[in-house]
Structures are given as structure tokens and as C-alpha cells.
Amino acid sequence: MCLPAIVFFCIFAYLPMPGLYLAFVKYNYTDGIFSSPFVGWENFKFLIITGDLWRLTFNTVAYNIAFIVLGNIAQITVAILLNEIRKKWFKKVSQTLMFLPYFISAVLIGLLAYNILSYDYGLLNGILRSLHLDPVKAYSEPHLWPFIIVITYLWQTTGYGSIIYFAAIMGLDSEIVEASEIDGANAFQRIIYIVIPWLKPTFIILLLFSLGGILKGNFGLFFNLVGANNTALYASTDIIETYVFRSLMTNFNFSMGSAVSLYQSVFGFVVVLTANWIVKKVSPENSLF
């Protein structure tokens, strides 16, 4: 049963690894990857000198921290609220409605956002004009986009992510809950002292998995909401994935794109090991290894 997964990772994760050499050469089509001039760490030095590496790292990490922290809070809250619903039909309807946004394409989300935020034809500016207020130039205002992106991400993923926590709550021994009710605990006390501690191991495992991709941005979301070439918004929306996309598809700089990707992978690997080490010290039974 493990064979398909092993074959998948061998083909898509391990066989391409020699291509990492591309990050240390000045690639040209004539010589290919392994015959192009070797430049060592020059690609990485260029990223550091230009300041691109720090901007990309900060934006990617900051967005992912917001996604992880706010996402898990929202998912746990929704799961607990669903568990408190007593009408089964209302619970099923609520789950379905919250689950649907996850299946909406990022392309469609970008289209919806444009129809709301467009300066000339957007719904938001249409309302502002009708109220005799100044319209907002959203696609020229970098400070607005952290809020727009985080809110959009939460809207799309909260319903789907809450399923895992809801399933964990379903595994809670009903006798414990009944005993607390007999002892006089109200709903709020049950949530604080029984449900939330019960969700702690699930939260830690999901947190460790999320930290592994803390330097991996949601390319589909960013690309379709902002685009890869909107220079006015680079300061607050440019992440590693959009930079790599531009390097490959616009600048045709394969070496620079590979250098950033290698940095991304090594950084994520170190973060996972560090986080797991901390968890192992604090709560050994909840560590990954």
C-alpha cells in the first residue's frame, strides 16, 4: 500500500534533486545545467545585496504566520461552534456552506476580488461614489493588501480546516462531557477545560506540518489576487513563489529562481527540526519524531 507514495516521492522529490546544481551556475541554454559556468554563491549574494531576499523572506513568513495563527484560531472556533449546535439539519447545512469556498478556484476568487476592488467598475468604489466619498485605488495601495489577502485566505480555508478539529472533538469521550454537566459545568466551562485541552495534540501536529511550509507561499492566491508584475504592490505582496515565477517566465533567469527555491527548502527544513525539538522538550508525546 505504501508503494504508490514511495514511487511518487522518488519521481517528484528525489530524482529532480541533482537539478539543485542550477542554483550555483550561470545557466545558459547552449551549455545546459551541468556545463554552464560555475559561479558558486554569486546568485545568493546578488539576492542579499539587492535586498530581494530579505523582502521575500519577510513577506512570505509574515503571511504564513498570519495564516497559521489566525487560521487555526478560526478553525478551532468554528469546530467548537459546530459541536455546540443541537439541530442536526442546521449543523449539516452550516458545514456544507462553510466547506464550499475551499472548492472555488483561485482564478474565480481573483475575478471576484477585481469586481469588488476595481477603481473604475468595482462594487466597493461604486458604493463609495454613491455616498459621495472618494474611491479607493486598491491596486495601487500596498498597505491594504495584507488585510485583503489574509481575509480572503480565511474565508476560503476556515470551513475546510475546521473539519479536522471537528473530527477530533467527535472523538472526545461523551462520558467526560456528561460528568462535567452533572458537576454543574456550563457550555463555556466545558469548552475551556475539556474541549480545548482535548484539541491540543491535534493543534501541535497541524502546527508542525504548517511550519514545514512557512516559507512556501500560496502562489495561486497571490498570483490571482495581485498578479506577478504589479510593481506598486511588491513591498507588501511579493513572496518567494511570485519571485520565482517572474524569474522563470519573465526574466528567464533560471539560476536565480533555483537559488531562491533552494533557500526556501533549506529554511523550511531547519524550521521544522527546530520546532519539533522545542515541542519534544516541552511535550515529548506530541512531537513528530
Automatic annotation (TrEMBL):
Localization terms from the record: Cell membrane
InterPro entries per UniProt: ABC_transporter_permease, MetI-like, MetI-like_sf
Keywords (A to Z) from UniProt: Cell membrane, Membrane, Transmembrane, Transmembrane helix, Transport
Bilayer topology: Multi-pass membrane protein
Regions that span the bilayer: 5-24, 61-85, 97-117, 144-170, 191-215, 261-279
Chief subcellular location: membrane
Superkingdom of source: Bacteria
Gene3D superfamilies referenced in this protein's UniProt entry, alphabetically: MetI-like
Domain ABC transmembrane type-1: 57-275
Family: Belongs to the binding-protein-dependent transport system permease family.
Full protein name: ABC transporter permease
